């Protein structure tokens, strides 16, 4: 089993749609969780951290369920500019071990 | 811009050759991690350097090696290149105890 697994995608959605990405992790000692965004052949960029209490940044909402070892990202009112690959990231050992999921590709169409 | 710079941006090598990739970390960042990203995959952790020592390593053979310098910049060396080494190599800097990574724009390596 992979340490971090994501929905394989791709997701094709119209503008204005709501889309949800799921991610599971296998290491129960995992400490911190993030979503990164990666545009085609560019470097990943931090989108947001993920907390057990849930956190929101504009149209983006992230949620963590430690008991189920599950992370989610919800994007509301999708824009064309949201088209990218979304990477689920899990860290432990004080940040000295960081594992990326394979990513889920999102295409938002007009 | 993250302040993390990588060089070169693109590189073409042939099987069996050796390559050195370079990374300058963001000011104030003392930890550098290297990742390999094949097409359609997520970044795979190669190793991490902290205080000029290798501080963790992923599932990569010994022909992948690295260095960190006193100014926290870093090099990734790959010997005896194989076709499967063709990938985007990403460097990320961070501050010890802070887990957010700041990536450079990467080096695209093609092995022919």
The biggest beta sheet of chain B is recorded as: 7 strands, mixed
- Can you give the mean pLDDT of chain A? 92
**Helicity range of the residues of chain B?**
under 10%
Tally of alpha and pi helices of chain A: 0
Percent strand of chain B equals over 45%
Order of helices and strands of chain A: EEEEEEEEEEE
**Helical coverage of chain A, percent range:** under 10%
Structural class of chain A: mainly beta
Distance between the termini of chain A: 37 Å
Cα shape of chain B: globular
- Which stretches of chain A are low in confidence, meaning pLDDT under 50 for 5 or more residues running? none
Cα(first) to Cα(last) distance of chain B is 32 Å
Describe the secondary structure blueprint for this structure:
The complex is a heterodimer of chains A (110) and B (112).
Chain A: E1 4-6, E2 11-14, E3 19-25, E4 32-38, E5 45-50, E6 55-57, E7 60-65, E8 70-75, E9 84-92, E10 97-100, E11 104-109
Parallel strand pairs in A: 2-11
Antiparallel strand pairs in A: 1-3, 3-8, 4-5, 4-9, 6-7, 7-8, 9-10, 9-11
Chain B: E1 5-7, E2 10-13, E3 19-24, E4 31-37, E5 44-50, E6 53-57, E7 64-68, E8 74-78, E9 87-94, E10 102-103, E11 107-111
